[in-house]
Amino acid sequence: MQSALLKLQNEIQARKHRRWDVVATARSAVLGSGLAIAAFLLGIRAADAGAEGGTLMRQFAASAPVGVVDLQAAQIEHLKRVTENSSAYGIPADLAERIEQIALAEGIDPKLAFGLVATESEFNRHAVSPVGAVGLTQLMPSTARYFRPGVDREALFDRDTNLRVGFRFLKSLIEKYHGNVTLALLAYNRGPEKVDSILRNGGDPDNGYARLVMRKNFPKR
Cα 132 vs. chain centroid, distance in angstroms? Predict the structure, then answer.
């Protein structure tokens, strides 16, 4: 398992900052899945060993500390998700990894985080909207300063800064609307003041934005 885990980690490393095309994406997805399966079977040698391979797996499970096995399994699952999201969205592995890590740190479901970034910027950290929202999560500098005082417009082009502040903003909206993700997304898109005003007047603030984000939560693999 250890050697297979290292192979999978090397595959993730090779995917970082790579230029993407359809063939490379498909090939990498297959390779990532193959490596993950191999890791769970304790490598090609154990898998090809028939009954002896099964004995080897049982011996490993019996002798290895439970914490070590659980940790390696968790690492493999994490690397599989990074590979799958990297391939599904056609983005470098380091970006896929940071979106998941920062989303979890900020209390956001990673699937929701990927849908948000895909909708807002198509994973382009240099994106600028006609009204001046910038970066991966399309933040207005004035909104960003509420969550990170002193942050300036240029800082919002930094990948991690933008993701962290954007996810923190979305988390605050989810809390504001008592867990109603649809309303939170609408407020992210239209502004909470606008959404609140429509709701107070008995209207429906839905403009299709939330459904668009949700559709991008589960890209075809």
Answer: 25
What mean pLDDT comes out for the span 125-136?
97
Q: How many CB atoms lie within 10 A of CB 36?
A: 22
Side-chain-facing half-sphere of 53: CA atoms under 13 Å: 13
List the domain boundaries for the chain: 2-90, 101-215
The set of catalytic residues is: 120
pTM (global) more than 0.85: no
Task: Please give the helix or strand (H or E) that residue 181 lies within, else none.
Answer: helix 181-190
Please provide the CATH number assigned to the domain covering 101-215: 1.10.530.10
> How does pLDDT run across 147-193, given as a tens digit for each residue?
999 999 999 999 999 999 999 999 999 999 999 999 999 999 999 99
> Percentage helix, strand, coil, to 5, in the chain?
70, 0, 30
CA angle 36, 90, 181 (to 5 degrees): 90
